[in-house]
Design goal:
Elements: H1 3-16, H2 27-34, E1 38-49, E2 53-56, E3 61-66, E4 71-77, H3 92-100, E5 102-112, E6 117-125, E7 134-141, E8 146-151, E9 160-169
Antiparallel strand pairs: 1-2, 1-3, 1-9, 3-4, 4-5, 5-6, 6-7, 7-8, 8-9
Length: about 180
């Protein structure tokens, strides 16, 4: 991992960290809620439409972080975004295309283990209209290192009938040297 990426990751974690803990109603709930804590890498993001049509979301490079202080942050990118002709002075069209190929929001988290959902209370984000909203995700863990989040039905715009993201936990065995 490059020094720049490590610095960015550490800064993000410092901003999201702090005292507190994942809120849960019972000891069993706390165990399940703690499974969220950590960094997750997107394995797949599938959208299903009426008529049995499906597609993969183009923003296929994505990370999701949950902290033990009831915070989360999500960032996603389309890896096929066109590079800017001039890295220091992109055109308006280049900036707009780059913006459209990026997704991000961060905020606080509320987990309802009994009903199987997590709510992301959006505090900052790419889309100004999303700030102050809640994003409900239905969750299923497949072991401790795989998580599926299904977008709540009220966020689906017809003809979309389902939208779900499969995440894999980022392991602790990565090399974080500063070389």
């Amino acid at each position: 991992m490059s020094y720049r990426r490590l610095t960015l990751l550490l800064a993000l974690l410092a901003l999201l960290g702090g005292a507190g803990g994942i809120q849960a109603q019972s000891p069993d709930d706390a165990t399940i809620a703690k499974q969220f804590v950590g960094m997750w890498r997107l394995a797949s993001w599938t959208r299903l439409y009426e008529g049995d049509r499906s597609e993969q979301e183009p923003r296929s490079i994505s990370y999701l972080i949950y902290t033990d202080s009831d915070h989360m942050c999500w960032v996603a990118m389309d890896p096929d975004r066109t590079p800017w002709v001039s890295p220091d002075e992109p055109t308006e069209a280049e900036e707009l295309a780059a913006f459209r190929g990026l997704g991000t929001y961060c905020g606080t988290v509320e987990i309802n283990v009994a009903e199987g959902y997590v709510v992301h209370h959006v505090e900052i984000g790419r889309q100004p209209n999303a700030v102050g909203t809640d994003r409900k995700r239905w969750f299923v863990f497949d072991g401790s290192d795989r998580l599926t989040l299904r977008v709540n039905a009220d966020e689906l715009v017809p003809p979309m009938i389902d939208n779900y993201l499969v995440w894999e936990r980022v392991s602790d065995d990565h090399d974080f040297s500063l070389d």
